[in-house]
Specification:
Elements (H helix, E strand, L loop, with lengths): L22 E3 L5 E5 L6 H17 L3 E3 L8 E5 L8 E6 L2 E6 L2 H15 L17 E3 L4 E4 L5 E6 L6 H4 L6 H13 L4 E3 L15 H7 L3 E2 L11 H8 L10 H14 L7 E3 L15 H23 L8 E3 L4 H7 L9 E5 L12 H4 L5 E6 L17 H13 L5 E7 L5 H13 L7 H13 L1 H20 L15 H4 L10 H21 L8 H23 L9 H12 L32 E15 L4 E8 L5 E6 L11 E6 L5 E4 L7 H9 L2 E6 L6 E9 L4 E11 L1
Parallel strand pairs: 2-3, 2-4, 4-6, 9-10, 9-16, 10-11, 12-13, 13-14, 14-15, 15-16
Antiparallel strand pairs: 1-7, 5-6, 5-8, 17-24, 18-23, 19-22, 19-24, 20-21, 20-23
Helix pairs in contact: 1-2, 4-5, 7-8, 11-12, 13-14, 14-16, 16-17, 17-18
């Protein structure tokens, strides 16, 4: 049986009566808890969950008592702790759990579940806890509090997974399971699903009560102002066009009705306006009218909130999200009230579009972040597998946190599965901020040890790191070279080769996927039976399905009895077992990339030879004014220097730039930031690098020196090579 050793010590039974008065509990031993009475229900909810966890791990009951002197565990409020914080320590052989408030106490109770070895994914990934004895030293103490005030997830693009799995209705039963997961992950903020296929959250009886039970603050995405879901609701109770320039009074009535309905709900109200679903706001045709109209919308919304809630606007939690074209309106001079949180966004592919300036960092409402690990849209969806890079996410989130983005973090998680590790990693960063010095490899190792044990953890970290790296080079969903939402649909629906990949590149990629796929298969024998289902969901399916997708495109099925497409079908059928029936769609939106192929997609022909001077699986962050020196010996008189960089967006100002100097000559300056959804941006996010090429010309062959210098913050170098014609 897998041994769980978490925090400090798992003691043997013989130490129960130790002199140091450690806190020890053995199998079958009944536990009692005294918990202070609290009006807010989240602490009682957490106690219910902890009671079930004790039963699962210790095989015994956790009984609530009214005499604290007779309790094994004492849980009380300590208002001196930071908001939502908690402290656990051992005192005279008893476990003391202090919470700053109801949320803090709830998180403290479930911290004991973690100590017992209960995974946050015990239900959502079938991570069945082991039977174990639990003990903590007499000097054990942990004190924690959130680094980000509101930490949450967005259920989105639900059409293909969580909606069919839930029976076509995301109601209180489904939301309760989501909220249980959130509570275990110390998340407190929720954006419900909002596509036209779903019923709006606030129109379903029981949803609000469930959020209250689990201490969840409810909000809405960038196109869902004031707790409404216009994509669905406007057709049901709106009148006229959803156009604020021509129909403002009816739209205000639409908003006001919802505010009255939810006035007692714990909310963070989204303000601003976009189109009915995910399009631009109607009613304005140029930059100045867009600015004026959105400014009026915000002022009117603030007045509605003040009137309906009978509070001053600054007393009402609000967030403004400059997503896509709204960022341009903001940059043109939109005035967002100081008490409103501004939530910055990534470009849907993991690269944050804007970091707060010094003035924005000082805002009373603070700054937030909306980030994606799942996306529907241009240049191509990635809704199938959890292939976003946790290494990129950590780099971007760390940069954001350092620059004051600490009020709200929301992650677009799609259907939750199969993005489990990414979700936990994101919420751990929101909880810990920069207080905890760590790196992604260590976080991944902790996750794998907890879920599958120390014997296999190191191997699994290596496999999953390679899985994320290979997907960073090109996600499985992006292998077809096709695009979504392009004007010329016929052209872009066609499957085409990846232009920059040679036969050597393809062969190396296929070899790597075969290696990690085989390794996953071999390691399965070492996984305990009670974690085999978890292993399939968290490791085997994503790795092997990704591998088979690559095999499908690059024609390695010739030596296999099973066609790669059929292998994906079989893997997906296994995933969609009784409990998870319908949760995994291997072809969301039925895009061309997911279809069986009648022929192998050709690779590009390699026409150059390349001397690589620098390359890395991730990148090297180069500080402003930092210089890197490389030497090479040219064998051709007219080679070309190829420089690849992480395609992130400017951190300060509006540019990303570097210079290149050869043999002490005057440096040549290059900029590489992209604007909007330009063709260059599309190429960059599909391959995860920007590229600049520097032509060279020599009169003779010999050794030369290259000096690369970062001229702005945010330069991240991934690759430098000297390319010469064959």
């Amino acid at each position: 049986m897998m041994k769980k050793i978490l925090y400090f010590l798992l003691l043997v039974i013989s130490c129960v009566n130790s002199y140091a008065q450690d806190f020890t509990v053995s199998q079958g031993q009944r536990l009692s808890i005294f918990m202070q009475e609290i009006d807010t229900p989240v602490a009682n909810t957490a106690l219910e969950m902890l009671t079930e966890d004790v039963k699962a791990v210790l095989g015994s009951e956790l009984t609530r008592v009214i005499n604290r002197n007779k309790a094994d565990i004492i849980a009380t409020i300590d208002t001196e702790l930071p908001r939502e914080g908690f402290r656990l320590h051992v005192e005279e052989g008893r476990l003391i759990i202090d919470g700053a408030d109801a949320h803090g106490l709830a998180y403290g109770l479930l911290e004991f579940s973690r100590i017992m070895g209960v995974s946050p994914w015990e239900w959502w990934a079938d991570c069945v806890p082991d039977k174990a004895n639990v003990a903590l030293y007499s000097d054990f103490i942990t004190e924690q509090c959130p680094a980000v005030t509101y930490r949450g997830i967005f259920i989105n693009d639900e059409d293909f997974g969580i909606l069919p799995w839930s029976g076509g209705f995301i109601g209180p039963e489904t939301n309760e399971k989501i909220f249980q997961l959130m509570l275990r992950l110390r998340a407190n903020y929720y954006w419900p699903s909002m596509h036209e296929c779903s019923r709006p959250f606030f129109t379903i009886a029981g949803n609000r009560d469930m959020a209250h039970k689990y201490g969840i603050y409810v909000g809405g995405s960038h196109c869902e102002p004031l707790a409404t879901t216009p994509a669905t609701e406007w057709m049901l109770r709106g009148k006229g066009e959803y156009n604020y320039a021509t129909n403002a009074e009816r739209i205000k009535s639409f908003w006001s009705e919802r505010i009255r309905q939810v006035k007692d709900q714990e909310m963070v109200y989204t303000i601003g306006m976009r189109g009915l679903h995910d399009g631009a706001m109607l009613g304005a045709k140029n930059d100045s009218t867009k600015l004026a109209l959105l400014q009026k919308v915000i002022l009117d919304q603030r007045a509605l909130l003040a009137d309906e809630l009978k509070k001053k606007p600054k007393e009402i939690p609000q967030v403004f999200i400059p997503y896509k074209e709204v960022l341009d309106i903001y940059n043109n001079g939109l005035q967002v009230p100081e008490d409103v949180t501004i939530m910055w966004t990534d470009d849907n592919f993991g690269y944050i579009r804007h970091f707060p300036t010094e003035d924005e960092m000082l805002r009373d409402g603070g700054n937030g972040l909306y980030y994606h690990v799942s996306y529907w849209g241009r240049p191509h969806d990635y809704l199938w597998l959890g292939t976003a890079s946790p290494f990129l996410m950590r780099q971007q989130l760390t940069e954001a946190y350092m620059r004051g983005v600490q009020q709200i973090w929301v992650l677009n998680v799609g259907d939750i599965k199969p993005a489990e590790y990414l979700i936990e990693d994101f919420l751990n960063m929101a909880w810990n901020g920069l207080r905890k010095k760590t790196d992604e490899q260590k976080e991944l190792l902790k996750f794998m040890r907890r879920e599958f044990g120390r014997d296999v953890a190191d191997s699994l970290v290596s496999i999953m790191a390679d899985y994320y790296h290979l997907a960073f080079q090109r996600k499985p969903e992006h292998l077809g070279g096709s695009r979504t939402e392009e004007a010329d649909k016929e052209t872009w629906n066609a499957i085409r080769p990846i232009a920059e990949w040679s036969k050597e590149d393809v062969d190396a990629r296929v070899k790597e996927y075969k290696r990690i796929s085989d390794a996953v298969q071999a390691l399965e024998k070492q996984i305990p039976n009670n974690r085999k289902s978890a292993y399939f969901q968290l490791v085997k399916y994503p790795v092997q399905a990704s591998a088979q997708m690559n095999f499908k495109f690059f024609g390695v099925a010739d030596n296999q009895r099973v066609n790669p497409y059929d292998s994906i079908v079989a893997l997906t059928r296994t995933y969609n077992n009784k409990k998870w029936n319908g949760i995994m769609d291997m072809a969301p939106r039925n895009l061309p990339v997911f279809s069986p192929l009648t022929r192998t997609v050709p690779y590009a022909e390699s026409k150059i030879k390349s001397d690589i001077l620098f390359t890395t699986k991730t990148w090297k962050s180069v500080a402003r004014d930092e210089e890197l020196t490389f030497t090479f010996t040219n064998t051709d008189l007219t080679p070309q220097l190829e420089i690849r960089l992480l395609p992130n967006h400017p951190i300060e100002g509006k540019t990303l730039s570097f210079s290149v100097s050869i043999d002490g000559a005057k440096p040549v300056v290059y900029e590489y930031q992209t604007v909007g959804r330009s063709e260059e941006w599309k190429q960059n996010v599909l391959r995860n690098y920007a590229v600049r090429k520097h032509n060279l010309q020599f009169t003779d062959k010999g050794e030369h020196k290259i000096v690369f210098k970062a001229l702005t913050e945010g330069v991240n170098l991934t690759h430098i090579a000297v390319n010469s014609p064959k």
